[in-house]
Amino acid sequence: MDQDDNRVTNGHQNGCTANDKMKDEDVSSETRYEDGTVRLKNANIELMDQDILYHLALGSGSHDLVEMFGDVKFICMGGTPKRMEQFAYYIMGEIGHKLPTGTLLQDISQYSYRYSMYKVGPVLSISHGMGIPSIGILLHEVIKLMYHAKVKDPVFFRIGTSGGIGLEGGTVVISEQAVDGLLRPYYELPVLGKLVQRPAMLDKRLVRELKALHHPEDPYDTVTGKTLCTTDFYEGQGRLDGAFCDFNENEKMAYLEQIQKANVVNMEMESLAFAALTHNAGIRSAVICVTIVDRLKGDQIHAPKEVLDEWQERPQKLVSRYIKKFLQTKGRFMDSYCGSPCVKSPRRFKLVQQESENYD
Fold it and tell me: Which amino acid positions bind phosphate, per UniProt (predicted)?
């Protein structure tokens, strides 16, 4: 543990005190220090000389993570580096954030060659790749980053695309709950030869707050419902157009109608891990996706690129409204960091770069 880390716990390891309770869910002393900063459920991290976040090209000993990220409030994640770079510039305009003259947004994790990360004032915009394994790795390291940076009560958003179940393309879906392909509301992971199940829960209050930000003049619907998360794009989502297919159209439609009756409104490939890991960390989170095809009508995506591009902006707009409302209510954040690494140790900084470049 850092010598200057003076955070203390409130002494209630196995439960929540009245002061820890939020309106919709409790944040226990397992996941928060008394000052509201993120606490990890892993005592090993405190004993490490340096914690290298391999896939972000950052390290607790090489970078001044408090200086770089201490003012962060919102972590926005999406699939591709390009999309999240575009979101970074979009949110910069929306919240009126100004970069110093002659500077550009920098990909903070460029030396990892895996994820892209941009900081815009209190907002982090990060690409999470495709599927549960990719977003799971990222979440471990971003949650640890929140701990090392002493971030207080962060809010995580996943912004992405999905297949609708009875919803037209362009519909915005705010997930009420994530379920797996068997409609189970938990993330199952083999750990040391045993299956561990973690509830895939999202913040109910955050769902209501986001839904309330839909504007009547928006030329599309914004709905809530269950999101089915699969481990595969083709067979796992009941598509007939993969390299392999051992079922027919009737069997596919029977499955899609079954999940529709279970109140599933869309499907994608990241929400289960996202919901489970953020919930386990005591972090408020939400999944906001746009549908790009109604799976009850077909498997392939036929919308033109310019239409898809506009559809993908719709979840970003909703999250932007939430962030702007928060900043207007709480006051704008002062931001002294715009993307250049704050290096504490040049030797360790070089080591982190080498480790991130070489780590498979």
Answer: 114, 158-161
Per-residue pLDDT, 236: 96
**pLDDT tens across 119-132, in order?**
999 999 999 999 99
For residue 271, give the nearest of 188, 340, 209, 179 by alpha carbon.
Answer: 179
> The whole model's pTM is what?
0.86
| Three-state helix/strand/coil letters over 165-227 | CCCCCCCEEEEEEEECCCCCCEEEEEECCEEEEEECECCHHHHHHHHCCCCCCCCCCEEEEEE
Of 39, 9, 94, 91, give the one whose Cα is nearest residue 281.
39
pLDDT digits (tens, 9 = 90+) for 18-68: 433 444 345 578 899 999 999 999 999 999 999 999 999 999 999 999 999
The binding site for phosphate consists of 114, 158-161
In a domain, 27, yes or no: no
Contact (Cβ atoms closer than 8 angstroms) between residue 161 and residue 289: yes
Cα–Cα distance list, 201 to 42, 170, 179, 284 (Å)? 21, 25, 9, 10
Cβ pair 291, 169 in contact under 8 A: yes
Instruction: Please check whether residue 340 lies inside any domain of the structure.
Output: yes
Give residue 102's pLDDT.
86
Domain count, the chain: 1
> What range defines the domain where residue 153 resides?
44-358
Residue 103 β-bridge partners: none
Is 96 part of a structural domain of the chain? yes
Residues at the binding site are 114, 158-161, 237, 239
The CATH number that applies at residue 254 is 3.40.50.1580
Q: Cite the annotated binding site for substrate by residue number.
A: 237, 239
Which region, left, alpha or beta, applies to residue 215 given φ > 0 means left and ψ of -120 to 50 means alpha?
beta
Q: Has residue 352 been placed in a domain?
A: yes
Whole-angstrom distance, CA of residue 86 vs CA of residue 80: 10
346 φψ region: left (φ > 0), alpha (ψ -120 to 50), beta (else): alpha
SS3 at position 52: strand
